[in-house]
Amino acid sequence: MTFSRRKFLIILGSAVLLAVLLFCFFFQYFKFFQVIGNSMSPTLKDGEIYILQKGRSDLKRQDIIAFYSSKDELNYVKRIVGLPGETIEIKNNQVYINGQQLKESYVVRNKDIPDFGPIKISPYQVFVLGDNRAISEDSRVMGTIPIVFIKGKIIGY
After folding, report:
1. In terms of domains, do 103 and 66 share one?
2. Active-site position among 39, 136, 151, 153
3. pTM (2 decimals)?
């Protein structure tokens, strides 16, 4: 083997090893997640694939999460609106957290939605809503979501 061929094989082997390590790292912390339905439109589109950052740490209001529903054994994608210990109420198409109106520029307001609550969110649970409220099956129907059922956050949308 000549020196240049040997050098080429070392560089090629290093590149392949680096690609394998990056691939393993990516799928340790992230996965691809396909959205089914229009309950999160226009933010997330039906059929499109997004990146899900795995885990439940650092969750905050307005994060879009994927979670498992034991009610029908399906995965859902919704937006966190209420956090543990908060009181949530929907009246006149507006969301109120502890009596304060929540600013929501992402919501589709194509139809009136029924008033809801007030309810107090239990510890270790969150209240989720779809951005397209008129067609979304969310915490108004399925109840609050245990944090342990959350698979992760949708990123890069």
Report:
1. yes
2. 39
3. 0.86
